[in-house]
Amino acid sequence: MTAFVVFNPNSAGGQTGREWREIEEALERIFPLLSFFVTAAPAQAAHMVRDALRDGHMEIIAVGGDGTINEAMNGFFDRGAPVSSEATFSFVHSGNDSALCRKFGLLPGWRASIEHLKQARIRKVDVGRVSCLSESGAPVSRYFLGGASFGLSGSIARLLGTARIARFFGHRFALAWHSMAALMRWRTCRVRLIATGHDEIAGISSVRLSPFGGLLDVEIAAGDSRRRILKAMKVPGRRLRSARLTAAPTLDTSGPVAVETDGESAGVLPASFEIYPGALNLRV
Asked: What mean pLDDT is predicted for residues 54-76?
């Protein structure tokens, strides 16, 4: 069996690159014929996966963190349509913590991922898509496998993606540090939320969306002050399910409202989110 492997040596603080020889040897026991692409800049993974699919590759593997996996998965789509409806995607997570691994009941770390691949089966999974704006106002389209969100969670993802110093102390420290930094900067955020049979203006801290059962599972976390946000973190938010959600900040919201997909900063509101049921063949 052959596979096209997209590999990010800088993930997990560079540990993925240092352990690449072991990862390669373990993958070759499952996929004897491998082609490799090493990412060197943002968005490269999506472009290379798209080219690989057009060249006829049927098995794509992303090796890295949630960001690398999301970038590679985005390469399966172009202008709202699948590049190849028959190709299969799988991933080897090389970090210590992963929202994607938690969603699919997998252990993080490349050894656990490769061990799971030995008996993994292919299944069709739902994929979400968000259309939003970049911070400069340009249109952005991103697909997500695990989930997307906007509000405080989007601000945290943006800080994690741009700040590097805290990463030297590990992901958990970086997450805690930037979560507190984002909370200290947080201002009241009110958005208009439009879904199937639902239209409201709500004060939110974060709105999270996850593909599930052919629809988007939407959780709305309230909070118009730091104290209420901290309280809201301890209890589940209001939920609704819809094939589509549109969100736009009201005029009294100060500053942009950040959007993230699979833990990576994607852009800002206004945005529309939609579901692509069974759009990806995932080996998991």
From this structure: 95
Q: At 147, is the secondary structure helix, strand, or coil? A: coil
DSSP-derived 3-state class of residue 244:
strand
Residues 15, 116: one domain? yes
Q: What is the pLDDT of residue 180?
A: 77
Tell me the pTM. Answer: 0.91
User: The domain that contains 109 carries what CATH number?
Assistant: 3.40.50.10330
Is the pLDDT at 165 greater than 60, yes or no? no
Which residue segment(s) compose the domain that 8 sits in? Answer: 2-120
Q: Do 54 and 95 sit in the same domain of this protein?
A: yes
Burial code of 184-216, b = ≥16 C-beta within 10 A, e = fewer?
eebeebebebbbeeeeeebbbbbbbbbbeeebb
Residue 247's DSSP bridge partners are: 193, 271
Closest-CA residue to 95 (of 17, 201, 16): 16
